[in-house]
Design a protein that fits this description.
single chain, 110 residues, mainly alpha, 2 domains, 0% strand, elongated
Length: 110
């Protein structure tokens, strides 16, 4: 399974997938059907440049982003309108983008 996600491109990953499906289809039919059905979604990050794939192939960064936004939102409690909420979100996303561009590999948490 790990070889599928460590493949250098989608074509190679698809070849590895076929091998896995052939090898385990009889023993684990439901799991292999699920793997085959979700292959395109699971390998969507392979269309990105190689340096970003490892970071974006899981939802860990997205989950962390949501936690950080919620943490900041709890400090403010009540927003006067939707625009103010969007401003907070935009400011935090711009900060994270700058950290990511500058080479920071994870969220600063600040």
């Amino acid at each position: 399974m790990k070889a599928i996600f460590d493949a250098p491109n989608v074509g190679t990953a698809r070849q590895v997938l076929e091998g896995v499906l052939d090898r385990y289809a009889e023993r684990f039919p439901r799991a292999m059907a699920c793997l085959a059905e979700g292959f395109e979604d699971a390998t969507a990050a392979m269309g990105l440049p190689a340096k970003y794939r490892r970071l974006l192939r899981s939802t860990n960064m997205v989950e962390r982003l949501i936690r950080e936004v919620r943490r900041r939102e709890r400090v403010i409690r009540i927003f006067p309108n939707m625009d103010s909420a969007f401003r907070l979100l935009r400011a935090y996303l711009m900060e994270q983008d700058e950290d990511w561009i500058s080479g920071s590999r994870s969220f600063s948490g600040a």
